[in-house]
Amino acid sequence: MTRFRPCIDLHSGQVKQIVGGTLSNTSANLKTNYVSEQPASHFASLYEKHALHGAHVIILGPGNEKVAQEALRAWPGGLQIGGGITADNAKLWVERGAEKVILTSYLFPGARFSPDRLESVLEALDYDTEKLVIDLSCRKKDGKWIVAMNKWQTPTDMEVNQESITLLEPRCSEFLIHAADNEGLQRGIDEELVVRLGEWCTNPVTYAGGGRHLEDLELVKKLSRGKVDLTIGSALDIFGGNGVNFDDCSEWNKQQSRIDHL
Questions:
Q1: Which residue(s) pair with 79 in the sheet?
Q2: Are strands 228-231 and 205-208 parallel, antiparallel or unpaired?
Q3: With CB atoms counted within 10 Å of each terminal CB, which end of the chain scores lower, N or C?
Q4: pTM of the shown model
Q5: What is the mean pLDDT of the chain?
């Protein structure tokens, strides 16, 4: 059943909400919706208090490792972590307290999918697929969703479709998919992508990008037939937004749990 999944996005050592399509290796074009005065550990503790399992911490560039570790210490075993994950550090992040690691750009050396790199990460995790989330965040081009790497600026050779999902599902426990063209804009979700993810995926999948109202949770539930979870970021009141109340999202999850148990 569809759930609200929160996030902690880290940029330059701070919790921020960023317009996803403006991320790059330079700060000149970066558009930021919100910079929190609270540390990452504050949000980790908040999510634990509300039992919001499956929350993800995303490291956006350098200068974030310390604050990421502080978040993991605040909720040991409760958070997923992504951004800069490789075969060399995947197990280390689990040892630091991550529930799962999220694999992104490392899978695509030279913007081409590498089965060998996926295998190396799984080997580092002792082939425990439950510890691995694959990030297939994408941008739409010519009617297709193309996986994008390097802060969503570089298109890869992988299309998000039934073929790629079927290929990767046995090698991971979940997918995380940001619609990068929608991320941080609060202009609505990519409804067509949500429908397709509900059709293609049997593993749990979290969609992020464009969520702006509490009603978007019900919309994602309807479009995906309850198979896709939703992350809402910039629209949340805890991130300076005025579209969605965090407590309402938490209560929505509780209501879904009650429905599940009927």
A1: 55
A2: parallel
A3: C
A4: 0.93
A5: 92
